[in-house]
Amino acid sequence: MLNLRTQMNKPQERGDLEAWMRICRRLRADVGDDVFSSWFGRLELDSLAEATASLSVPTKFLKSWIQSHYAEKLLLALAAEFPFVKGLSIAVRSSNRALSPVVIGRDAVEGPACAEGAQADAPLTTPEAAGASAKFLVQKPRESNLAGKPQSEAGEADIIAGSPLDGRLTFSNFSVGRSNQLAYAAAQRVAAAAPDEPLLYNPLYLHASVGLGKTHLLQAVARAARDARRRVIYLTAERFMYGFVSALKAQTAIAFKEKLRGIDILIIDDIQFLQGKSIQQEFCHTLNALIDGHRQIVIAADRPPGDLDTLDERVRSRLAGGLCVEIGGLDESLRVKILEGRVAAARLAHPNFDVPPAVTAYVASAIQTNGRDLDGAVNRLLAHASLNGAPLGIETAELAIRDLVRTHEPKRIKIEDIQKLVATHFNVSRADILSSRRTANVVRPRQIAMYLSKSLTLRSLPEIGRRFGGRDHTTVLHAVRKIDALAAKDGTLSEEIELLKRMLME
């Protein structure tokens, strides 16, 4: 549907309005309905003067995209109706222009008017009509669904539109230790920043293994920012993908884009799950628009930006350009602190629940994985205490948490670390290993590095090939088989490989 607004009643001005409608039909036929709705749906023609058509759009993103991709098509369509137009200018209009629209349905644009045949291609018949200063618009910008609401309500509306928040995940109940102190301080700084304060950490990128507090910090930022009456959206990568695909199907992609670009803070969790070329392109555009507009972005993932192999290189580069903070594993003192906090929270609902310090110390030493396992331990202790009615001791605790006690997880090894260690060990450079050189002193270390990458990481053969200078997966497979066969025959080589493995595992 097109919303046309005009304050003109003279016949020639109504003729100009019809000419603009013909331009819209011409553009729609040229680029298709979806592209027209996405990029031209909110384009306004402000004036025609001195051989220049002055147009406007509501956002810098739309202006940049139209100028980069559709300026020539737009100028040709304008010149077909207004021959004197030799150039065009696109501006970003103010969002507070109060204008009253006259709504004209799509049938009015594409139905009877299109049946006029040759009239649709006819230029203005008089110089006076052609030179008249036109003032009409296509599709008045939609008022934000937050307009007219207090900022606190606006923040709530945006949160509801995103993924739900857990009321327990706040800064006040986040346990701080050496491994997460920097991430906690950075998240607090972002949440407490004033709207006009320069953004020091943008984007703020937090990465860690599961259960170490990434989601807790992200939701704490979202809640604190909302309480400060800032417009914030918290999304998981899955919710972002679902929202974008749904908007495309419903032909509301432009509203989806502007929703994200009209906020103060965008928070996205588990970015490693972001899939799809078009979705990643839209995410990259959103990052650029928000960063250029001095809006805060907070991202969390399970690995650093450089290790997100499934993401486009431009997205990884943008994410790496901010503050990247790794949340490390929980040391024993921090695990004790987390357990004490969880027990205190459980005691609010179960006043008789008591965990002796010796039991807390035992659980903290036995469970060395993550915070979620510590939550599970408290739930099991609570169940045993409430169902059995007996005081908790070490033996009871041992029985309660035995399914949570795991062997120490092996160190997560990165392909870059393998390349650096192998290069140093064989006295070549990492650049040599990634290069196309085929001399013997480079080929063997490269094959060993590929072999170790396949043995010590969970990366697929194609992923490993990409990390070794963009090689094919068959090259990696050949290297793995080659080194495997040589190590079976050559004891020295086998010992050398085992040494490298031990060095990488330490």
TrEMBL record:
One GO cellular component, as annotated: cytoplasm
Main location: cytoplasm
GO biological processes: DNA replication initiation; regulation of DNA replication
Location in the cell: Cytoplasm
Residues noted as binding ATP in the record, renumbered to the chain: G211, G213, K214, T215
Molecular-function annotations in GO: ATP binding; DNA replication origin binding; lipid binding
Domain of life: Bacteria
Keywords: ATP-binding, Cytoplasm, DNA replication, DNA-binding, Lipid-binding, Nucleotide-binding
SMART domains listed in its UniProt record: AAA, Bac_DnaA_C
Region (Domain I, interacts with DnaA modulators): 1-122
Pfam families: Bac_DnaA, Bac_DnaA_C, DnaA_N
InterPro entries cross-referenced by the UniProt entry: AAA+_ATPase (IPR003593), Chromosome_initiator_DnaA (IPR001957), Chromosome_initiator_DnaA-like (IPR020591), Chromosome_initiator_DnaA_CS (IPR018312), DnaA_C (IPR013159), DnaA_dom (IPR013317), DnaA_N_dom (IPR024633), DnaA_N_sf (IPR038454)
Region: Domain IV, binds dsDNA, residue numbers: 386-506
Function according to Swiss-Prot or TrEMBL: Plays an essential role in the initiation and regulation of chromosomal replication. ATP-DnaA binds to the origin of replication (oriC) to initiate formation of the DNA replication initiation complex once per cell cycle. Binds the DnaA box (a 9 base pair repeat at the origin) and separates the double-stranded (ds)DNA. Forms a right-handed helical filament on oriC DNA; dsDNA binds to the exterior of the filament while single-stranded (ss)DNA is stabiized in the filament's interior.
PANTHER family registered for this protein in UniProt: CHROMOSOMAL REPLICATION INITIATOR PROTEIN DNAA (PTHR30050:SF2)
Assembly with partners or alone: Oligomerizes as a right-handed, spiral filament on DNA at oriC.
Record remark on domains: Domain I is involved in oligomerization and binding regulators, domain II is flexibile and of varying length in different bacteria, domain III forms the AAA+ region, while domain IV binds dsDNA.
The family this protein is said to belong to: Belongs to the DnaA family.
Designated name of the protein: Chromosomal replication initiator protein DnaA
Organism, as annotated: Methylocella tundrae
